[in-house]
Design brief:
Blueprint: E1 2-8, H1 20-31, E2 35-41, E3 52-55, H2 60-79, E4 86-89, H3 91-98, E5 110-122, E6 125-135, E7 140-143, E8 146-149, E9 151-152, H4 160-174, H5 184-205
Length: 207
């Protein structure tokens, strides 16, 4: 069985290196011995048989080129029941909210720009990343299988607990009954690297 990972308009939605999140998922799946394919999603037809969709952050100029197409894609996700696991960053998170994906969140307002490292508590865990936004949207949100975040970085490179949550959803979507564990050597190396990142950036977040 091949797990299908979608990334939406990767050439447009990579303003802060957010497509690195897809690389993290690819590496994690490979380490766990799972077959996968990465699909560029630029039309609603590309959603067919996807098990996960990543949506990065883009500039105003990039959005001028793709906004109409992205809205068609989001409409197809809603039409199909909005069960597809999704991670959306910053401007894509804002667009998901605008399209009705996070109904429990109040409509965002524009305020002073916040540009800083931040540690936020979400669903009982701490998450670390870089925030650069004028939106009042919460740093993290979830509605079913859809996640939105204001954290750049890419966020998955810093937050192994989020990777695990997403991979479980991806495996459920693909019909993989059990998420294989990381090999001990890889798990140890990864834990050490993430620990060093947190040590450095926790200090930056406290400034």
């Amino acid at each position: 069985m091949t797990i299908r990972i979608g990334t939406m308009f990767p050439g447009h939605l990579d303003l802060n290196g957010d497509q690195g999140n897809v690389k993290v998922l690819e590496r994690q799946l490979a380490w766990r011995g799972l077959d996968f394919a990465t699909i560029k999603v630029e039309s609603k037809e590309d959603l067919k048989d996807l098990d996960f969709l990543f949506m990065g952050h883009g500039s105003a100029a990039a959005w001028n080129q793709i906004r109409a197409d992205v809205r068609v894609i989001l409409g197809e996700i809603q039409r199909s029941g909005a069960t597809l696991p999704v991670l959306a960053v910053s401007s894509c998170y804002e667009l998901l909210k605008d399209s009705g994906f996070f109904p429990e969140i109040e409509a965002p307002v524009v305020g002073p720009r916040v540009s800083k490292f931040e540690i936020t508590l979400f669903e009982g865990s701490e998450f670390l990343g870089y925030v650069n936004t004028e939106s009042s949207l919460p740093t993290f949100a979830r509605n079913g299988n859809q996640f939105g975040t204001m954290l750049h970085g890419p966020v998955l490179s810093r937050n192994s607990n989020l990777v695990e949550r997403l991979l479980r959803l991806v495996c459920d979507s693909a019909g993989v009954q059990t998420l294989p564990a990381l090999p001990n050597e890889k798990a140890g190396q990864l834990a050490d690297l993430v620990s060093e990142i947190w040590k450095l950036e926790r200090e930056l977040a406290s400034e």
